[in-house]
Specification:
Chain lengths: 161, 387
C-alpha cells in the first residue's frame, strides 16, 4: 500500500507537510495524490474513532451481530437481498460470508427493545430471509486494530544509555 | 580494631559517570518529556511475549547449556547464513550472552593481556572504556570529528595503532551518534585492520535500525571473519531490552575462551529469555519493518526541526538517536541539558556522557511517540529562543 495511505489510515489528522516529510516527497505531490485517492473512492471518509464506553450519556446504544440466512435471487445472487437489508440505517455493517450462514450484519439501536423490534418487524419478515440468529454485543475489547482500553504507562526509566 | 574494607584498585580508580547528579535531577522531576531513553518505546511484540509465557506454562524453567539453547543457536546460525551469508558452527562459534553488554565484556576479558590497548572511536557507548580497564587493558580513544559525521577514517585508525594494540571496538550504527558505515567505508577500514592483525569486536546491536543503506556486518568483509567477534542482540530491533539476551559469534578459539568465562560467571542466559529470542528469530519480520518505518518517520521530523531551530544535527544513518550540536548556544553540554530540564522539562543526555568528544553535543532519542516528540521540539525551540 502507498505509504501515504498507510500514514493516513493510522492518523487522518496528519498535515500535508508532515506526510510529505515522512514520505520524503513534495507537498504538492502528496496533495495531488490524496485528491486523486478521494476522487477514485480509495479514500472514502475521514472519521474519529470513539470509545463509546467512555462517553457519558444517559442512554447508551446497543449493538447486535446478526447472522442472516437468505435465499439468493435469480441472476442477482446475494447482492440484491443484501442491499435491501443494508439500506436500513440501523444496519451499520453488512458482510457476505462463506460458511453456515450468508450475511453477517451489525445493527445498532437505542436499546435491546429497538434492536429486537428491528429484527422481528423488518428483517425476519423479509421475503428472502430464511432465518436469523441475533447476538447482542456485551463488551468490546478490540476493534479495527485499536485496543479499547487506555494506553499503557511508559514503564521505561527516564534516562538510560 | 576490625580491618577496614578496601575496594580493588581498578574499581576505585574507575571514573564514575560525571553526570550522575544530572540523572538524579531528572528522576526527581514530574511531567518531564524524556528524550534520554536508550530503548524503543514499543513493548516486545506480542508473539514473542506469548511464546515466553507458553514456555513457562510448559515448565521450561531449568538451566540451559552454557552456550545457550541448541534451538536458539541453530536458528541464529540459519538466520545469519540466510541474511548475510555468514556461516558459524552451532557448537563452536556461537555463544548466547546476557545482552551485547556481556558479549563485550567476555570478548575483552578473553582477548586482553595486561596493558594491551583497545581502540575505541569516541564518542562511544559508555561501557567500552571501563570494561576494557576491568579486563586489564588500556582503552585508547580515537577522537572522531563532527565535521566528518563522527566517522572513523582509515587514517585516524592507522595513526592510533601501536605495537600494543590488540583490538578495535567498533559500534555501528553507533550509540550515541547514529553514525553507520557503507560497505565501501568498511572495506577501507578492514584493510588497515588486516594489515596490522587487529581483532575487531563489532557491536552491531542497532543493525536493523539502519535507514539509508543495507547494513554490512564486519565479519562479511574479505578475510575479516577470522578476526572478528560479531556481537548482536534483540534489545533494540525487537524491543527486548529487559530480557537481556544477545549473542556472540567468532573464531572457535575466541568463542571457546569466552564460553569458559561465561560458564563460571553467568552459567547461562535465563531460559525464558532464550525461548522468547527463538521466537524473535523465526517469527514474522513484518513488525520489524513497521517499527523501522516509524523510526524513519520520526527521524525525518526531529532532524528537520532541530536544524531549523539552529541546533545543527546530521541525519543519522541508523539508531534512534539525534546527536545535536549545542555549540551555537555557547553552553556546555551539561549546562544546556540541566537548563533545558529546569526551564522546559525536557530531558536529553549530555554528549560528555559518551566521552570528551561529546562536549558541545546532546543525545536526543526519537524513540518516543510523535505527539511527545512534537511537544518536546516545541519546548526545546522555546528554550533556545530565550537564550
Amino acid at each position: 500500500m502507498d505509504p501515504i495511505l498507510q500514514l493516513l489510515q493510522k492518523d487522518a489528522r496528519l498535515t500535508l507537510q508532515e506526510i510529505a516529510k515522512s514520505t520524503r516527497s513534495k507537498v504538492d505531490k502528496v496533495k495531488k495524490k490524496i485528491a486523486k485517492y478521494e476522487k477514485d473512492g480509495v479514500i472514502l471518509a475521514y472519521k474519529t474513532v470513539i470509545n463509546k464506553e467512555l462517553v457519558k450519556e444517559k442512554s447508551r446504544s446497543v449493538r447486535a451481530l446478526i447472522e442472516v440466512n437468505v435465499v439468493p435471487q435469480k441472476d442477482l445472487g446475494f447482492d440484491k437481498v443484501a442491499e435491501r437489508i443494508y439500506r436500513f440505517p440501523e444496519v451499520t455493517s453488512c458482510y457476505l460470508l462463506s460458511g453456515s450462514y450468508d450475511l453477517l450484519i451489525v445493527v445498532e439501536g437505542r436499546d435491546l427493545h429497538t434492536v429486537s423490534q428491528f429484527v422481528a418487524e423488518k428483517l425476519s419478515p423479509m421475503e428472502n430471509v430464511r432465518g436469523t440468529v441475533t447476538h447482542f454485543l456485551l463488551k468490546k475489547y478490540k476493534e479495527d486494530g485499536i485496543l479499547l482500553k487506555g494506553k499503557d504507562a511508559d514503564r521505561r526509566l527516564a534516562i538510560t544509555y | 580494631m576490625p580491618k577496614k574494607i578496601t575496594i580493588s584498585n581498578v574499581v576505585s580508580q574507575m571514573q564514575p559517570s560525571g553526570i550522575r547528579a544530572f540523572f538524579d535531577l531528572v528522576l526527581g522531576m514530574k511531567d518531564v518529556i524524556s528524550l534520554g531513553v536508550g530503548e524503543p518505546d514499543f513493548v516486545t511484540p506480542w508473539h514473542i511475549r506469548e511464546s515466553a509465557i507458553f514456555s513457562l506454562e510448559e515448565g521450561y524453567t531449568s538451566y540451559t547449556s552454557n552456550k545457550g539453547l541448541v534451538k536458539l543457536r541453530t536458528y541464529l546460525a540459519q538466520d545469519l547464513k540466510r541474511r548475510h551469508g555468514l556461516r558459524y558452527d552451532i557448537d563452536e562459534q556461537i555463544l548466547v550472552t546476557v545482552g551485547v553488554s556481556e558479549g563485550v565484556d567476555l570478548a575483552l576479558r578473553a582477548l586482553l593481556e595486561y596493558g594491551e590497548e583497545v581502540l575505541i572511536p569516541s564518542p562511544s557507548y559508555v561501557s567500552y572504556g571501563p570494561v576494557t580497564q576491568l579486563a586489564g587493558g588500556t582503552p585508547v580513544l580515537i577522537p572522531l570529528k563532527a565535521s566528518n559525521g563522527f566517522k572513523l577514517t582509515p587514517r585516524e585508525l592507522e595513526r592510533h595503532i601501536t605495537p600494543d594494540t590488540k583490538a578495535l571496538l567498533l559500534n555501528y550504527p553507533c550509540n550515541p551518534t547514529g553514525t553507520s558505515y557503507t560497505k565501501k567505508e568498511l572495506l577501507a577500514l578492514n584493510k588497515v585492520v588486516h594489515r596490522h592483525g587487529l581483532v575487531v569486536i563489532s557491536d552491531e546491536v542497532y543493525d536493523e535500525l539502519t535507514y539509508d543503506f543495507d547494513h554490512t556486518p564486519f565479519a562479511t568483509l574479505p578475510g575479516a571473519k577470522d578476526r572478528t567477534v560479531y556481537l548482536n542482540g534483540f534489545s533494540k530491533s525487537w524491543a527486548m531490552t529487559g530480557w537481556r539476551v544477545g549473542y556472540a559469534c567468532g573464531p572457535r578459539e575466541v568463542i571457546a575462551a569466552m564460553t569458559k568465562i561465561h560458564q563460571y560467571t553467568i552459567m547461562c542466559v535465563p531460559i525464558t529469555s532464550q525461548m522468547a529470542a527463538c521466537e524473535a528469530v523465526v517469527g514474522p519480520r513484518a513488525l520489524l519493518d513497521e517499527m523501522t518505518r516509524e523510526y524513519a518517520r520520526r527521524r525525518a521530523f526531529v532532524i528537520d526541526r532541530l536544524n531549523k531551530m539552529g541546533l545543527s544535527c546530521r541525519r543519522p544513518e541508523g539508531t534512534f538517536y539525534a546527536f545535536a550540536s549545542v555549540k551555537k548556544t555557547g553552553l556546555s553540554s551539561v549546562v544546556f541539558a540541566s537548563r533545558l530540564l529546569k526551564d522546559q522539562r525536557v530531558a536529553v543526555v549530555p554528549g560528555t556522557a559518551f566521552g570528551p568528544e561529546g562536549e558541545g553535543f546532546v543525545r536526543m532519542s526519537f524513540a518516543s511517540s510523535m505527539d511527545k516528540l512534537k511537544e518536546a521540539m516545541q519546548r526545546i525551540e522555546a528554550f533556545v529562543k530565550k537564550l
